[in-house]
Amino acid sequence: MKISSRPVKEYIISSLIKHDSPDNLARRTAIQSHSMASPYVKWIDGVVYRILNLTFGSVDERLTEQFVDNGIMWVDIEYAEMPTFASTINSPQENIVVPVINNSSDSNEKALIMWIKDNSQ
To answer: Which of 9, 17, 94, 95 has its CA 20 to 30 A from that of 65?
Structure first.
């Protein structure tokens, strides 16, 4: 058996949306989630976010090849500031509760969130 690891070498962000509150991000996440999937968001260092991975979807075979061959991952990101981690976000508008995963130990996504904090207004 062969096991290998191919970490992400580069993220290419095709869409970056900043929401004015965690509630709005949770609301949008719940509305856009598939009926068979439970909506959730992630949190790192004061930012709550969700990543839509375009690389492995049915968007384009070339994107998957770029990841496999070069470690390039195409993503859409939506985020909001949330200074303190909370295990859920309650969205009263939709009467929903969206779980939040503390993803601070993911070094790839931590680097991505640091880039967002340094480069967005």
So the answer is: 17
How many residues in the chain?
121
d(CA 61, CA 38): 27
pLDDT, tens digit, 9 for 90 and up, residues 39-63: 899 999 999 999 987 655 555 666 6
CA distances from 52 to 14, 34, 63, 72 (A): 10, 13, 14, 14
Identify the three-state secondary structure at position 113. Answer: helix
Q: What residue type is 80 in one-letter code? A: A
For residue 45, the enclosing domain spans 10-119
Per-position DSSP letters for 53-95, written without gaps between them: E-TTSSS-HHHHHHHHHH-EEEEEEEEEE-SS--SEEEETTTT
Neighbours of 119 (CB within 10 A): 9
